[in-house]
Amino acid sequence: MSETKPNEALEKARARIRASGLRATQPRMLAYALLLEVGGHRSVDELVGLLAGRGESVSRMSAYNVVADLTRAGLLMCAEVGPGRALYEASEEWHHHFVCRRCYRVVDVRCITGSKPCIEPPDDLPGTADEAQVTFRGICDDCAASVSQDS
C-alpha cells in the first residue's frame, strides 16, 4: 500500500467512514487515517502506541471497539496470522497472507478471485460462509537467502 500524507489520510478516512454508514468519530478517523497512512499489518497495541506518539490519546478499549467497528464495516481487514495478537490493515481489496516462520513477517498475497468467499465451502458446513481467509506459511525469500549464506 502506498503511504498517504496525514491530512490526506484524515480526509480519506472521514469520507470512507461516512460512506460505510458509520459516524466519523474522532477515534475512528484517527485510527483509520493512521492505518491508511502507515500501511502494513498492525496490532491494536501498535495502533495505540503510534497514536500516542502523535499526541493522540485513544484508550486500548476504545481502539478495540474502533477496529471492530471498522472491520465490520469492511474498511479494515483482520489478518488471520495465527496465535497471538490480531493484526489489522486498511485494505480496499480482498486478499490473503503469507507468514514467515522465521522472521514472522506478514505479506499480502493476491486472491485469485478477488472477492470473498473465494473458496467453495464444504457441503456439511454448519452455516452460511461469507468469508474465507487463506494463510500461507513458510520461509520468506530473505530468510531463505540468509540461511543459505550461513551454510
Question: What does this 3D model show about the protein?
Answer:
It is built from 5 helices and 5 strands; from the N terminus they run H-H-H-H-E-E-E-E-E-H. Strands 4-3-5 form a 3-stranded mixed sheet, with no helix packed on it. Strands 1-2 form a two-stranded antiparallel ribbon. The radius of gyration is 17 Å and the shape is globular. The model has no long low-confidence stretch (mean pLDDT 88). Helix 2 (26-38) crosses helix 3 (44-53) and helix 2 (26-38) packs across helix 4 (60-72). The chain has 2 domains: 1-92, Arc Repressor Mutant, subunit A (Orthogonal Bundle), CATH 1.10.10; 93-151, Dna Ligase, domain 1, CATH 3.30.1490.190. A hairpin with a 5-residue loop joins strand 3 (95-100) and strand 4. It has 151 residues and is an alpha+beta fold. The chain has helices at 6-19, 26-38, 44-53, 60-72, 141-150, and strands spanning 76-79, 87-90, 95-100, 106-110, 135-138. The relative contact order is 0.12.
Overview in brief:
This protein is an alpha+beta fold and 151 residues long.
Descriptive labels:
151 residues, alpha+beta, Arc Repressor Mutant, subunit A, Dna Ligase, domain 1, two-stranded antiparallel sheet, 5 strands, globular
Q: Kindly state the mean pLDDT as a whole number?
A: 88
CATH superfamily of the largest domain: Winged helix-like DNA-binding domain superfamily/Winged helix DNA-binding domain
Q: Tell how many strands the DSSP assignment holds.
A: 5
- Lateral strand order in the biggest sheet: 4-3-5
Cα-atom Rg, whole angstroms?
17 Å
The CATH class assignment of the largest domain is Mainly Alpha
Total domains, how many?
A: 2
Helix content: 25-40%
Q: What would you call the shape?
A: globular
Assign the CATH architecture of the largest domain.
Answer: Orthogonal Bundle
Number of helices: 5
> What does the main sheet amount to?
3 strands, mixed
Strand content: 15-25%
Distance between the termini: 35 Å
CATH fold-level topology of the largest domain:
Arc Repressor Mutant, subunit A
SSE string, helix = H, strand = E?
Answer: HHHHEEEEEH
* SSE class: alpha+beta
